[in-house]
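[Automated response] Your request has been received and processed.

Submitted sequence:
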Amino acid sequence: MVRSSLSGGLARMRQNTAVQRPTACGNEHRATTLARSALLAALTCGLACSTPTKVNGDEPDPSGAADGASKAEEANPDTVAPSIELGPITKGSLREHPAGVAWVFDGDPAAPTKMDIGEAEARGYTVIDLSDDWVPYILSEKTAGTEDATDNAYRETYIDLANNRVNHWGDALDEGDRNYLELYGIPSTLSVIAREWNEFDAEVVPCLQAAGYDRSVFAEFDGVITFRKSGKSKRNKSARYHLAQLKRKMRKAKLDPESADALLATKDNPATRKAYTRWREYQDEVDVIDHAQRRFRCERLFTGGDGSGKFAPGVYDSPTTHALATFERKHELMGWGHFKGDNVELLALDPRQSVHQRLLRVLQERTVLSAGVLEDGSAATWKNRKGKTFTYKDAEGNEHELRDLASEYLNAVVAALDIDTPAKAKTRLAGLSDLSDKGFGSLLIAVKLPEKPPYYGANMQFETLIDRGDVWYDFPYDSEGNKTGQPRRSRPKLTLYVNYEGQKIPLVHWRTTIGSWRNEVKDGELMMKYKNSDVGARVWKNIVAAPVWIPPANTPPAELIKGAWRKGKYRTDVNYPTIGPGYRSAYGLVAAYHIKQVTRADGSVAELDNGIRTHGSVDYMSILRRFSHGCHRLLNMNAVRMFSFVLLHRDYKREGQQSVGVGRYIEHNERTYHMKIKTRGYKYELVEPIPVEVTNGRIRGRRRSPIVAYVPRPVKEEDLVIDGEDGGDTDSVAPAEPTVTAVPQ
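Generated structure:
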């Protein structure tokens, strides 16, 4: 089987936040690097390594398959009618999709069969939406088979972002600009990937050849290059100095210092070996930076100059670190501002392989969400206290290991489409586009996928455990304003379980966040306050897509008013990207409200909302190392997957867009800004809430409970950086917490 594990190697980062045991941050990133190496080897192995896979449903009737459709036939749903009884429509069905038909890949991938969507589903195929108008289930506007249609205000923006039409402000993208938002929960469309691939062959490859790009410098590098605001050219000066010293020794050894062969030979010459080693320590870093810059320029990843930018060759300057960040976003890497294992390994790949991996990640996201599965290997690799992985028993008593359905299902799609190599994938991508005169605009495919585990059903019984890990209540500064150490060996984790045959079966096991000390305004003064994460039994009752954060009155104005370059001008305005709706909002793309249910004396149930949410976030650093304002953050892409999965497998009422009229005047830097909020987001109410248990965690330090009072800040503004290892957060995202009553508009 093609172990592409773009969810085990794509669980990638997806988990970096997936955990087995508490590990050092560096080890987590090394694990991701190794997983990605395994992915590359698997893709090279290709389908020759595959084995037969058990599938659902009956085989399609082959009669008329040769007559009905070829890849050249124009997709016209009016010409294809179902030939079998379709049965009742299910919540996850795509039978109502306006395309009407899907292209069945079950045999020769160059000759798919056009089939009515309902018939394809009835025959056991999974229909996968590859159209340019695809959205995850949380942004759907109607439940299949019901009459509950209601508009989702963020749906079109999501589609526009995925198609590179607008930026996060809603402004049209300038020519040459690109959105790379996979890491933030918005994968690119196949149209974008296809255009990128064509541009790559036509423009990027010739540019790299002309620039003398040599990816072997990355394969030979084993180290970390950090960005520093000062002394950026120090390594370049050191490299030149040690090269001069080496050439001096070469002359003494009667070697020609201008000969490339002689220079290379100095590494084995006893008279020059040490000088060569000292030179290469610096020159290797300079070479990595230099050739990365060539790659970034050819891919137009620099800011300004149509992506070519202005930078100092071989110097790790500010333009280069921003280009590296864009490269990492493009390839769904969690950047730390350094050249390190994962991004250096990706730079060492043939650039066509990088594009291929991008395509596979998009296909995996579409496949997982269309199939309505969640398991990504994070629970399968999680070990209990005895060091053993989890298993479960089916209704007949047979024991099963937990699975990585995300990888299994991607493997099946890769095999069906025959796209296990970059060359084949590019050819097949063009063939998919030719299936319709609209290209990818309305493309749906149908494939046979491995059988789902027996615990799957229409209304699954879920429960969630949030382990807070190590918790420090102590104030993180001493009386002189010095930071105090607050190390955490155990990080917060969220586990979603399904109850089946008397067993709690973990589906995913992901890194999350808890609250800590944060900035708040008290009586006009910036203070610090401990933002606790509620402990005990709660429920998820309301799930809100594209949620909006209504800032509390004590939110610092500097977090609500931000400046940004827009259309060539620097503008200062209300920080709507953080307020939402949007992928960058404080609540991300989706949030579930934590509700405490209290039974009154008369038997009725009161529901208390303390403003705590489990929600998506673009601030992956807080999830990996830092803190929130009390909420439990997930990577946006994980939150989208999990809550789409929950809605597909639980009964709910579609409440739709929740209108509000909130306004507030904000004074900042002697100017007044008017904040207007019109919606809280798009609401789903679960018929039966999902139990959530938040543990006490392991309390560290002297204090056994939080300080409830505001505490004066003992440090200067520029010093108030609570390192993630020591107990704080350096992100600039506004507090992702409790809604309070604001001034009505």
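Summary generated for your ticket: The CA atoms of residues 537 and 693 lie 5 Å apart. The first helix runs from residue 11 to 14.
If you did not submit this request, please reply to this message.
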